What does this fold into?
Amino acid sequence: MTLRIAPARPSDLDALVALEEAAFPGDRMSRRALARNIQSQSLGFLVAREGGHLVGHALIAFRKGSALARLYSLAVKPGATGQGLGRKLLAAAERHARRRGADRLRLEVRADNAAAIRLYDRAGYTRFAQIEDYYEDGEAALRYEKALV
Ligand SMILES: CC(C)(COP(=O)(O)OP(=O)(O)OC[C@H]1O[C@@H](n2cnc3c(N)ncnc32)[C@H](O)[C@@H]1OP(=O)(O)O)[C@@H](O)C(=O)NCCC(=O)NCCS
It folds into this structure.
């Protein structure tokens, strides 16, 4: 099946809500936040579609005058994981950030999220900090950064 990665559209909202519920046990974006994020000028909201079905998203946040972008969210639909989609969405997020003038991408990941940590390690991200008690349930966050050159 052909994979297409493109900006999210308002008509993706239902599928994005479903993805959020399926991919994250907690700390989810609400429907309202997702709707706002699709329209936001300071965010890049990319979705991956396979055979017309939404199978993943990547959300990148930008700040005016800053060359530092932040990967705010990355998710692949359970059932579509383990096939390279996460890696492709991450690469697309990096290209998007570069196109919008960023030279570094930062992200936070739960310290117990082994799959995501391995994905970021293998994609060349460097861990530079840990923040205790960062998530709703008290789990720590690991902070990663990559130079986009
Ligand atoms: C993390 C996530 C995005 C990975 O997506 P994916 O499509 O399964 O990832 P890929 O198939 O592209 O795998 C890329 C790399 O990630 C790592 N990885 C993915 N799944 C893994 C798993 N279950 N265990 C260990 N490493 C894993 C591997 O290093 C893999 O590369 P390799 O197989 O060559 O070693 C996906 O599991 C997900 O959406 N999880 C729930 C939401 C989430 O945790 N998002 C990240 C928040 S920071």
Notes: The mean pLDDT is 97. The pocket of coenzyme A is lined by residues 23-24, 74-76, 81-87, 109, 113-116, 118-119, 122 (CB under 6 Å). DSSP finds four helices and seven strands in the chain.
